[in-house]
Write a structure and sequence with these properties.
182 residues; mainly alpha; 10 helices; elongated
Length: 182
């Protein structure tokens, strides 16, 4: 009785996942008329976007929570010189792809219940990598503020104009110089 109930629940979950997957694919294949109207070349920007990024953005839009925090982490990681070509869509696609590949483990050996945590950990892997890179870049920027201030103060004490002192400060390596460029 219990095994039949579990089998029915698994079949229902599989059917629901297939339905959600099909609606995701259909939303990717069906162009959005508002986007095509708002784009100057009739959606030319959408055509230049890689399919992995479009898929990741479609997944991100369907999540029940906001990814603004991860955008902030990704922005700081880019300032630190990592994940330069990535966007939030690419990051989400990578997380879903890792989770899908890790789902093979528990399906191949269902006798090991610990393996059911592998897809969850695989989905979290790219997100934690970006978070860690963003936090490191942020800490490096905060640690670089006294050095930058000392450099600008020394330059200005030597009767150098403020613009020249800031230009010299832009030559410092690290994420802080990237903030001064912006």
């Amino acid at each position: 009785m219990l095994s039949t109930l579990l089998l029915l629940l698994a079949a229902g979950a599989l059917a629901y996942a297939a339905y959600q997957g099909l609606t995701l694919v259909m939303s990717l294949l069906t162009p959005d008329p508002l986007t095509a109207y708002a784009e100057p070349a009739g959606g030319a920007n959408l055509a230049r976007t890689p399919w992995t990024e479009r898929t990741g953005f479609a997944v991100a839009q369907r999540l029940p929570f906001s990814l603004d925090v991860w955008e902030d982490h990704l922005r700081w990681a880019k300032r630190g010189g990592q994940f330069l070509g990535d966007s939030l869509g690419t990051l989400m696609f990578r997380a879903v792809a890792y989770g899908g590949l890790a789902l093979i483990l528990p399906l191949m050996s269902p006798d090991v219940p610990v393996l059911w945590f592998a897809p969850v950990l695989a989905v979290a892997l790219p997100l934690t990598q970006v978070r860690d890179a963003g936090q490191k870049a942020k800490k490096r920027a905060v640690r670089g503020v006294p050095e930058l201030a000392a450099l600008v103060a020394a330059e200005m004490a030597a009767n150098t104009p403020a613009e020249a002192a800031l230009e010299d400060a832009l030559k410092l390596p690290g994420p802080l110089s990237g903030l001064l460029h912006a």
